[in-house]
User: What shape does this take?
Amino acid sequence: MKLINIVNSTEALNKLAEKDLPILTSFKITDILFKIEKEINNYNMQKNKIIQKYGSTEDGVNYNFSDENKLEFIKELEELNNHEVNLSIEKIKLPDDINISASILYALRDYIER
Assistant: This one.
């Protein structure tokens, strides 16, 4: 699974975790959230290193990139985003009567049984 897919699925997993679901489904969701937390933290740390490497800042918060550095930043960020991560997870079987948006389902496509 690409690292960016894990990052982009976090919000959807958290929304799903708020639903009233069967206990085993909730357990699997929590297990997935714990497993991806390490990957998310590492991703954010590496992303910040790339930002600091290629960006300049006056206030320590907002970063600016020169045209040359911007291209290098994008290149390294895409490399990080496309990094393949092997997650040992058990896919989730959602109840048929669950009310959930299509955008959340799309974000969860790697985690749910079809």
